Amino acid sequence: MSENIMGSCLCGKVKYEIKNKFERFFLCHCAQCRKITGSAHASNLFGDPEGFNWTAGEKIVKRFDYPNRGFTNAFCGECGSGVPYLNQSSTAIVVPAGSLDTEPKFTSSSRIFHVERAEWDKLADTAEIFSSFPHE
Ligand SMILES: [Zn+2]
Ligand SMILES: [Zn+2]
């Protein structure tokens, strides 16, 4: 099973494993992905549904399917962290990269809907960098 990669939510009640071979890695800056993640962009890997298994907490996963354009949000019902889901066309498991516990292997990566990138995200390019909380 060394070719599998594990993931989990923040509280640890939801856990999964998936084959560590992802065809695409999309950083999506569209308005809907910003709403879903509450952040600058979604960071989604696309994996093979055959290679995916919940190892804990499947019953507390909540799923919301947006009526337009196939947007979905899946999250731990306890802590709200994003977790994987089967896309609405059942062709791929969409894995929020931040839910993985180690580094994924992927063959291509793209920033998509970059034209919809938030203005505040552009300003953040010049943000001061600290290794932890800023010091005085
Ligand atoms: Zn959780
Ligand atoms: Zn998007």
UniProtKB/TrEMBL annotation:
It holds the Pfam family GFA. Residues 5-121 form the CENP-V/GFA domain. The keyword Nucleus does not apply. Keywords: Lyase, Metal-binding, Zinc. Belongs to the Gfa family. This is GFA family protein.
